[in-house]
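User: Quick one: structure for sequence A, then sequence B.

Assistant: Sequence A:
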Amino acid sequence: MEQISAVEDFLTCPVCLETFKEPVSLGCNHSFCSSCLHHYWDENKTKNCPVCRRKSSKDFIDVNFALKQLSLSFSKKAPAGESEKFCSSHPEQSPLFSLDECRPLCPVCEFSLHSGHKVVSVDSAVSELKEQLHSQLQPLAQRREQASALQQQYEEINLHAQTQVKECERQIRAEFERLHRFLQQEEESVLRALREEQSRQAQTIEPQLQKIREKLSTLEQNILTVEEQLKRQSMDFIREYRHTHKTTQTLLSQPGPELGPGLLINQAKVLGNMGFKAWDKMRALVHYSPVLLDPNTANRELHLSEDLRGVRHGDTEQQQVPLNPERFTNYSIVLGCEGFSSGSHQWDVAVGDHPRWRIAVAKESVDRKGQLYTCPTYGLWCLALDDGKYRDATHVANNTLNLKRSPQKIRVRLDYDKGKLSFFDAEDMSLICSHKERFTEKMFPYFCVYKAGGAKTKEIKICSTEGL
């Protein structure tokens, strides 16, 4: 009973001393019937809490539906559909609906409190609110389609990333297997040099050792002869003395044995700078490229070489790659994978007889999805070739260049700090054109390649530097 009494006290309005009807809660955590609270405020011309007198900062307070449900359950007056009597004080009155507060209200108890609100019948409210919800269906469906399309893009990107991992793994293994083979060959070469040195040492020491053995044998034989001679008596000793003495003198007159040079293994020759020599030879196998192409920026029409230094137009064949944010979608463009925000940089591009291309530097913020012109206004500083005409693309109109010959290799030189970009014929370093600009963001190497047609050069390629 005490527990029931405590619950009843908790669910009793301090103003009307009845179970809550449409209870609202203030910031001070005191709760009241909505009508009781607003009536108290109107009478006292204040926004204070009727219990603790703390001022409320809100003019309109939402119904505490959790407390309302608890009150209804306690008083066994749970909602019963359309037959529910909204206000226990005026059960005969049909409730109205405040569209501003989005809640029903009693036309007798609360109507005067909502003079500035839009109040309609429940049926009108249901119709209007259903219309509002119905109008939201189409935007929701559009959002659902967008989310579904985005999910598909993410799944495609994730699938492509897995393919990238496998391809990178294949190339990594192939490259290191090539280097391993080279190192194995170098190891065998050094071991072969060791065996050759061992053979030389053996060929040097064996003849000398054989001579020593023969000399030692002769000396031992002579000593035995002398010892035998010394044992003889009288005339036997005298008869053999001359011969023995002569032989002994001959042996003693010969130079004594000495150690000759080059008898040991020449370790310095075999091991000296072994690692450096292998690395020095390896430099012919590896190539350094000052610029590498970024596959994630390449338009679907472009095909990059495995070493990421060459690019060609695929004619009708397109790459099945996702349209990620970094990728150019409307033009056959690819960027370098590394941008520059300081210092001086240069790279050579072999263009051969390719008939149509653009070589440039581009701002990091260059538009990758929309319309793009090869001029500084669009974040590009460009040298272009179209139909045999070279153009300095510093303006939308472009400036035609009169060159003495068609360069086979273009050198791009970017001095970021001085704000200077120059294009040269790499064969004789004659200047083709240059730009002066104050760069304010990271700049990336830029390549745009079109169909090669009947030209021999199908792929334009960034030239590598031999070795490191």
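Sequence B:
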Amino acid sequence: MRPFRIDIPQEALDDLDRRLAATRWPGELPGTGWQRGVPLGYLKELAEYWRTGFDWRKAEEHLNSFPQFLTGIDGVDIHFLHVRSPEPDAVPLILTHGWPGSVVEFLDVIGPLTDPRAHGGDPADAFHLVIPSLPGYGFSGRPQEAGWDTARVARAWAELMHRLGYGRYVVQGGDWGMPISLQLGLADPAHVAGVHLNMLATFPPQDPAEFAQLDEADRARLQFAMHFEQDGAGWRKIQSTRPQTLSYGLTDSPVGQLAWIVEKFKEWTAARAAPEDAVSRDRLLTNVALYWFTASAGSSAQLYYESNRLDTEFIRTWAGPWPLAAPVGVAVFPEDAVRPVRRWAEGILPTLTHWSEFDRGGHFAALEQPELFVGDVRTFARRVR
């Protein structure tokens, strides 16, 4: 375990400023809004704010206020935050982000989860937090060989928790954190006390009769999934098949990287007019800047190639079933990009013991609705402590 501190060289900040100022902008079909992608006027204004208004050093200082480490696992350096609770009986909890997220997703929930006493909560709900960056993401190393799929990441997480001395722990994740957390429950059943998800994929069963059992709300979720697959899955197809080709443009152009990420914060959240309706502009840019400064556009996309490239791999990665020994809890946020059907969830999660449905929030739950996220994690964990 080697202590780690973020320290982006000033030359990298100066280079970013020059690149943003020299952006070669495309044209735009008038009146289309967000329908065909990120609007030109919005992105110009956001890029200018990134160049002249956003304070990376302030964001860097905030990130560095939490203990961070690197450790080599299976040939890759894993970066992680390790924030221990002041409560002696705190339960270890590992939080896993997805794409296009990062450890930045969890900054607003670290305090309440580790020190509930200081945040108006019950000290019995305290957690020791482990928040790793996925391999190829952020400050984690880039795998130098093929085969780093979700199951392999889960095995690395099990080793990480073992090295930290945690004999029994709770697992939480959304997006890529969903299959990784479930795989971790399968890989380390002797030590995983429970798995909490803020996103769950439920695929239609093969029996057509099952569709007749759906109520109006579930039929709407199924209709949303069908539309999303038709209209909203382009990024997944590209990253799952040609991540290297994509990486050249996103690694060379900060505005390209910005647009590629910010689009998802508009489409997958409760945002109405702009992503900032759901996530603060500075927090959004902190996340984008982390991808930019670490040049991880291409390496982060490799997880898609490893786990999603063919339809068979996609289904194997996301569909289940998940015969875990540990209890599983699911939090459903209404504006998420993935909206599960509970009836189908019960068929793939035999240990499903907790199900919450909220009236607000989307894909990046810890960022959008930190209080709801914290409350649901606490409620679930009380069952397994």
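The longest helix spans residues 216-231. DSSP finds 16 helices and nine strands in the chain.

User: Thanks, that's what I needed.
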